[in-house]
């Protein structure tokens, strides 16, 4: 337990004073140290009159059986001494610019251990996936239907019907009239359902995907600067895989990327928000959801996501063929909370294929389609995309696979072998010679036991991202490649991936990135002084911060937790006839962020080379961050919240957008999903009690 004096020291940045005393004793006389000590005593007395200083005087040990009500009673008794609380919105963050001083030492990478002692007991292996023992009767490649002779019952004649599947909208399936299916026939659509009957009574039903190319897109295409013809761009994504988890579970893929293909891993890549939409929107539009037009289902007059400035719209102007692919349509990035697409967004779009599979099979996440894994279908669709179009046709493919990794981080190891073979396919066919290939994830595990470990919180914020460049690239653009490798150890974000895409249309970008730009191309050197504020990373997602643990029975911890639950309940009043109010159950963890002594005291460099630092300043930071993990009743919901403390104004700022639900809520908020999905993380419908 912290003592009162320690707590006061912490809240008034006592680490500065402690460091100064230590330096004093090292290099100064006793008289100077005595005067400095008197100064600290005066500072201590002043600090205890500060609003947080007053709180610290009431940090006392409590008996384990002391009731929550007694703690809240203490808070009420001391209300006049506690800081003011404001519940703020995103507009307030913009207006007040929650950023650090322009003087910064940049991001210090937090330590992560691939064999973390809390995480390793949660790791286990998965048995190999077993799909149907009977081989698929048909496959489809390059827009052709192919009969697999060895799979058809021996000496049996078969009759087959083919039903094309086409885009209608993001929520309904449209099929065309059935027709007779014949071997080697040309297909009219990318997706189809096929049903066969053999003379001996055997039947076959399956779903297939291929590429039926659009007409030439090179006509009237804008030329790109820097290349004779545009480079292909391919994003291969796996949902919910941290950098550490990728190294644990996809070992052969990691080895192949880093050793065989000389790829660069972005080790300090940091998410910019909660879940998949912030990650993908930042890459594909360069903007946050809040900066884009309103598209949430629950909001009146919301638009379809067609209005977003997706990068593929610009790429089409340069003659690119485009592909976007996700599986598991029930939790689609642009359809779970958002209104989805009204028109097909890319030339090839996989969602309607999976909608039909889900509609017919009633399976949320079918891992197999006949004898073939669903993941292999996913990969083969992109391989078809590259082989069906002419080599000179520039291609943009963006796919993210959810099925293996979203619900169980251990299962992603099933993707290891197929992903290596997919990379080898691109090597063998020569596509890597003209493709910028990015293997990535959107974030680490979010709703799992790993997420509830200390390192798991860091891993959620540090997904795997790597970039593979054509072999000739380094010889032609040595400076750009050096920057990519250097940036592997610089703070990077999804905004940078967007800037990288843009730079491929007008190459090369500046040699050194401008910190005034939120997104910086990976081909430009990202300054080492970059921090979360200049990179556009909100405080609660910034893994550069150094957190100091608070006692969970500290009054400030209970005060913030109680105010959080009040703020949750204030939101729930909007649907109070449907949603039960919440009660604070317990505080699981509490932390306060602290800059390092070096950060606070750093002034600049003494020497020309920048090797010898000069200390002596006492520059503080304008905001402290408190991070709490709390549990509420009913139903033991767990939340992680970041609350900012405005040091100058002595005000606690609660922004509900900085709150995440850590454990899954399942069907708890079903009664309000179509009315107000924003409340989903807090709402427990009365019929779920």
From TrEMBL:
Pfam families: DUF229. The lineage of its organism: Eukaryota, Metazoa, Ecdysozoa, Nematoda, Enoplea. The chain crosses the membrane at residues 32-52. The keyword Coiled coil does not apply. It comes from Trichuris trichiura. The keyword Transmembrane applies. PANTHER family: FI08016P-RELATED. InterPro entries: Alkaline_phosphatase_core_sf, DUF229. It comes from the Eukaryota. This is DUF229 domain containing protein. SUPFAM superfamilies: Alkaline phosphatase-like. Keywords: Membrane, Transmembrane, Transmembrane helix. One of its GO terms (cellular component) is extracellular space.
């Amino acid at each position: 337990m912290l003592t009162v004096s320690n707590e006061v020291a912490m809240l008034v940045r006592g680490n500065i004073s402690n460091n100064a005393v230590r330096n004093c004793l090292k290099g100064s006389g006793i008289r100077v140290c005595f005067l400095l000590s008197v100064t600290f005593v005066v500072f201590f007395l002043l600090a205890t009159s500060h609003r947080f200083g007053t709180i610290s005087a009431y940090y006392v040990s409590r008996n384990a059986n002391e009731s929550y009500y007694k703690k809240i009673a203490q808070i009420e008794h001391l209300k006049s001494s506690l800081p003011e609380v404001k519940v703020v919105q995103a507009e307030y963050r913009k207006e007040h610019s929650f950023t650090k001083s322009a003087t910064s030492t940049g991001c210090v990478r937090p330590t992560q251990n691939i064999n973390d002692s809390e995480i390793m007991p949660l790791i286990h292996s998965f048995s190999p996936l077993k799909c149907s023992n009977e081989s698929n009767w048909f496959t489809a490649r390059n827009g052709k239907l192919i009969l697999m002779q060895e799979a058809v019952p021996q000496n049996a004649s078969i009759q087959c019907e083919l039903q094309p599947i086409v885009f209608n909208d993001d929520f309904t399936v449209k099929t065309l009239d059935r027709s007779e299916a014949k071997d080697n026939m040309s297909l009219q659509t990318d997706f189809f359902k096929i049903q066969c009957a053999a003379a001996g009574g055997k039947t076959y039903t399956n779903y297939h995907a291929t590429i039926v190319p659009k007409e030439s897109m090179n006509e009237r295409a804008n030329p790109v600067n820097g290349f004779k013809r545009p480079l292909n761009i391919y994003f291969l994504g796996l949902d919910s895989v941290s950098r550490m988890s990728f190294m644990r579970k996809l070992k052969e893929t990691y080895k192949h990327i880093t050793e065989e293909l000389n790829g660069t891993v972005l080790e300090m890549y940091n998410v910019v928000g909660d879940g998949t939409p912030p990650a993908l929107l930042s890459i594909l539009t360069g903007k946050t959801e809040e900066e884009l037009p309103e598209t949430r289902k629950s909001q009146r007059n919301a638009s379809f996501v067609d209005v977003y400035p997706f990068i593929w719209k610009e790429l089409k102007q340069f003659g690119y063929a485009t592909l976007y692919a996700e599986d598991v349509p029930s939790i689609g990035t642009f359809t779970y909370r958002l209104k989805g697409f009204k028109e097909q967004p890319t030339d090839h779009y996989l969602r309607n294929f999976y909608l039909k599979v889900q509609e017919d099979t009633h399976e949320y996440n079918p891992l197999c389609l006949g004898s073939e894994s669903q993941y292999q279908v996913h990969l083969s669709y992109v391989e078809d995309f590259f082989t069906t179009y002419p080599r000179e046709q520039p291609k943009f493919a963006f796919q993210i696979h959810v099925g293996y990794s979203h619900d169980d981080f251990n299962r992603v190891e099933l993707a290891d072998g197929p992903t290596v073979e997919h990379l080898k396919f691109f090597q063998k066919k020569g596509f890597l010679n003209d493709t910028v290939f990015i293997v990535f994830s959107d974030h680490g595990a979010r709703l799992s036991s790993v997420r509830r470990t200390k390192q798991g919180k860091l891993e959620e914020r540090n997904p795997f991202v790597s970039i593979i460049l054509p072999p000739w690239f380094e010889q032609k653009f040595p400076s750009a490649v050096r920057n990519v490798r250097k940036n592997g150890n610089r703070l990077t974000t999804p905004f940078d991936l967007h800037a990288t895409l843009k730079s491929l249309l007008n190459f090369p970008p500046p040699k050194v990135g401008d910190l005034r730009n939120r997104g910086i191309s990976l081909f430009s050197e990202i300054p080492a002084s970059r921090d979360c504020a200049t990179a556009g990373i909100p405080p609660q997602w910034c893994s550069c911060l150094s957190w100091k643990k608070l006692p969970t029975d500290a009054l400030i911890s209970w005060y913030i937790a109680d105010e959080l639950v009040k703020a949750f309940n204030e939101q729930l009043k909007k649907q109070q006839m449907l949603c039960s109010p919440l009660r604070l159950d317990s505080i699981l963890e509490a932390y306060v962020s602290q800059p390092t002594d070096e950060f606070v005291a750093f002034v600049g460099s003494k020497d020309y080379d920048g090797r010898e630092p000069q200390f002596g300043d006492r520059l503080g930071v304008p905001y402290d961050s408190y991070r709490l993990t709390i549990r509420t009743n009913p139903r033991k919901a767990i939340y992680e919240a970041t609350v900012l403390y405005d040091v100058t104004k002595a005000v606690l700022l609660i922004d509900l957008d900085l709150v995440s639900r850590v454990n899954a809520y399942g069907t708890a908020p079903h009664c309000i999903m179509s009315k107000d999905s924003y409340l989903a993380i807090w709402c427990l419908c009365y019929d779920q009690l």
